[in-house]
Amino acid sequence: MGRRKLEMKRIENKNSRQVTFSKRRTGLMKKARQLSVLCDVDIAVVVFSSKGKLYESSSGSTNSVESILSRYEKSCAEIGEGSNSGAGTDLEFLLQSTRFRTCNELLQTVDRLVEENNEQLSVNDMTQLELELDAALMQTRLRKGSGWRGGTTQPNPKVTCLDY
């Protein structure tokens, strides 16, 4: 009996979603280790769960995720010396985008936190959530200002409704 093709959408059942995340995270880490061994490359994998828990893995025993990310930052600095964009913003954008890939995921996360744990959230958790929302909004406005589609000067009409 073969495997069936899964539709790529959010798994609604909380327990099934957690089991799937755990299995796929393990598979992702295994593939990263295999690629590292087979091709003799340094790999860092950073995964944030829906609850915000950090899972990280790096290739080899001598290279940590931090050392690989610092090497990435240095290489971006060398490449970006001739251009106006700094490597720090590229790395910051990379780190922010690993946290929340899309605005839709951010909204789903907020909905889950507010609906499920509204009485269990502490003031610090609410403050952290507010800071993350502010950062996401600022990032969205920056992307809107840069044309959203790469190099175009015409902003996307769907994005213009973000200003309040």
From TrEMBL:
<dbReference type="InterPro" id="IPR033896">
    <property type="entry name" value="MEF2-like_N"/>
</dbReference>
<dbReference type="Pfam" id="PF00319">
    <property type="entry name" value="SRF-TF"/>
</dbReference>
<dbReference type="GO" id="GO:0046983">
    <property type="term" value="F:protein dimerization activity"/>
</dbReference>
<dbReference type="InterPro" id="IPR036879">
    <property type="entry name" value="TF_MADSbox_sf"/>
</dbReference>
<dbReference type="InterPro" id="IPR002100">
    <property type="entry name" value="TF_MADSbox"/>
</dbReference>
<keyword id="KW-0805">Transcription regulation</keyword>
<protein>
    <submittedName>
        <fullName>K-box region and MADS-box transcription factor family protein</fullName>
    </submittedName>
</protein>
<feature type="region of interest" description="Disordered">
    <location>
        <begin position="145"/>
        <end position="164"/>
    </location>
</feature>
<dbReference type="GO" id="GO:0000977">
    <property type="term" value="F:RNA polymerase II transcription regulatory region sequence-specific DNA binding"/>
</dbReference>
<keyword id="KW-0539">Nucleus</keyword>
<keyword id="KW-0238">DNA-binding</keyword>
<dbReference type="GO" id="GO:0045944">
    <property type="term" value="P:positive regulation of transcription by RNA polymerase II"/>
</dbReference>
<feature type="domain" description="MADS-box">
    <location>
        <begin position="1"/>
        <end position="61"/>
    </location>
</feature>
<dbReference type="InterPro" id="IPR050142">
    <property type="entry name" value="MADS-box/MEF2_TF"/>
</dbReference>
<keyword id="KW-0804">Transcription</keyword>
<dbReference type="GO" id="GO:0005634">
    <property type="term" value="C:nucleus"/>
</dbReference>
